[in-house]
Design goal:
The chain is an alpha/beta fold. The protein has a single domain (12-191, 230-245), classed as Rossmann fold (3-Layer(aba) Sandwich). It has helices at residues 21-32, 44-56, 71-85, 108-136, 158-178, 204-211, 220-230, 249-252; strands at residues 12-15, 36-39, 60-63, 90-93, 140-145, 183-190, 242-245.
């Protein structure tokens, strides 16, 4: 139930890959709306700094640093969420890796890294969270982080695009197995988004502003708003869906190159 207008009052969320960028924006938004958040990042310093920023704003958050592609770590993280806050209501698989490379030269070890984290980490976070949600008998929300590259071809991103398309199919498939437990599973597919990482390219904002119909790349808050809707009580009848957030780019799909 809402309390003082905070729609995630008494909810507990796990968000992976959340030390900065989109993941951090999602955590900040969840905490500001009353959720207790387990914030994961592979880099401990980023996880701790991000958590401190939320605590300073009066939110409830704990850092849990580690490798979100490890099945053992994922299960420990879900158990830690239960130890800290008593339950798990929301799991957002945001952790991912982008390894560019031409298809004809792409290395097996790079493909495995992409698949282990982007697909395997998301799959097993959903599994561990769903098992906890099933035990609680109170339903839940699972959200995958796809990408416009899972919809449209993008040069040198065959492995990454494949992994993101797989997550959208996983969201559809899990409808069959998780709906009986009142667990919804959806995906969001961000397009170009201004983050600490993408803005390392000094031409990023200019390029994507030129080729995005709405005239600018997304902000992390643009993505967070969509994520929060899909894990909110108001989205209880939405499951198996993928929402593209790209300012219209996939409608026309001009290359940034």
């Amino acid at each position: 139930m809402e309390k003082n207008g905070r729609i995630f009052h008494n909810q507990v969320a796990i968000v992976t890959g959340a030390g900065q960028g989109i993941g951090l924006a999602i955590c900040q938004s969840l905490a500001s709306q009353g959720a207790a958040v387990v914030l994961n990042d592979v880099e401990q310093s980023l996880a701790e700094e991000a958590t401190e920023s939320i605590l300073r704003e009066g939110g409830r958050c704990v850092a849990y640093a580690g490798d979100a592609s490890s099945v053992e770590f994922i299960r420990e993280m879900v158990a830690e969420a239960v130890r800290q806050f008593g339950k798990v209501d929301i799991a957002i698989a945001n952790a991912g890796i982008t390894l560019y490379g031409e298809f004809l030269d792409y290395r097996k070890e790079d493909l495995m890294k992409v698949l282990d984290l982007n697909v395997g980490g998301s799959f097993f976070l959903a599994q561990a969270a769903a098992l906890q949600m099933k035990e609680q008998k109170s339903g839940g929300r699972i959200l995958f982080m796809s990408s416009v590259t899972g919809h449209q071809a993008h040069k040198n991103l065959a492995a990454y695009g494949m992994s993101k398309a797989a997550l959208e199919m996983l969201a559809k498939t899990l409808v069959l197995e998780l709906s009986p437990y009142s667990i919804t599973v959806n995906a969001i597919a961000p397009g170009a988004t201004a983050t600490e990482r993408t803005l390392e390219d000094k031409d990023y904002e200019k390029t994507w502003s030129r080729i995005t119909p709405i005239g600018k790349p997304a902000t992390t808050q643009d993505i967070a708003h969509a994520a929060l809707f899909l894990v909110s009580p108001g989205a209880g009848h939405i499951t198996g869906q993928s929402l593209v957030i790209d300012g219209g780019w996939t409608s026309v799909s001009p290359s940034p190159y």
